[in-house]
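seq:
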Amino acid sequence: MPVAFRDYYKVLEVPRDATEADIRKAFRKLALRYHPDVATDKATADARFKEVNEANEVLSDPEKRRRYDQLGEHWDKPERPTHSAGAGYNPAAGSAQDFHFGGTGFSDFFETFFGSGSGSQSSEFGRTRNPRPGSERFAQRGRDIEGDILVTLEEVFLGATRIITLQRSDPRTGQSSTQNLRVKIPVGVRQAQRIRLAGKGHEGEGGGEPGDLFLRVRLATHPEFAVRGADLFYELDVAPWEAVLGTTVQIRTLDGTVSLKVPAGTAAGQQLRLRHKGLPESDGTRGHLFVGISVQVPPDPTPQERALWEEMARQSTFDPRKPS
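struct:
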């Protein structure tokens, strides 16, 4: 099955010379628009959100972006150097079968060049004696297959069941088959954790058991939360007077909206903690949500606002450059 090229710059709606800041801004804008929590057309938005995440994963990583730019859209032309085929196919491993995944959140193009299973299958065989008396043949366990699955923070929080498709094709015979596989995403699953589907890998030989399918978790980049272990990090923009006088704001968490009190005198860069509002831990507890304060200055004050700032400057005894 031919692998279609993905134009990640087009997906993020940025030029090829976009800066890292341009890519971050474009991703956040599109991710906020298509995030399943806010989009009206859930089905379309979910696919678009995953597509945007895939593009961001490649273009936001300098090394992956360099490799992607070297490939170009004519990567599959005969005159280009050959690359290891992904999506579960590894000619060096002696397998003629080609595997393609559907419903994992990643395209075949991503799996081919940037996935954890690209060109890499387990080359180890479990070997057991053939049970037939007098036989010298060995039963060989089938090779394992690896792929990636994109998991949202909401799925980490609640757990989920996903249906993926696994298409197997044999270039020698032209035969292919497709399986629908039920994948259980456990609550609290972590980045790079592998989900095992027993017996869904290569078929064994000589009566050997089939290999397994391993799906490596890649957490979808959230437009608002950063992840570190079970803790979440969120940046809150506040006005200067809110930082000075204090305020109460509404913060959206993974399980609803909560009120956060910003104390008077809160400094830029300070972190406030919402206890147990992070991701689930394996022991049933939860991480925390840390809210970083970013003080935003009015970009274009009106004449009346400017007069008030000038009056405050005259009246205030505060000197930020004076040692405390």
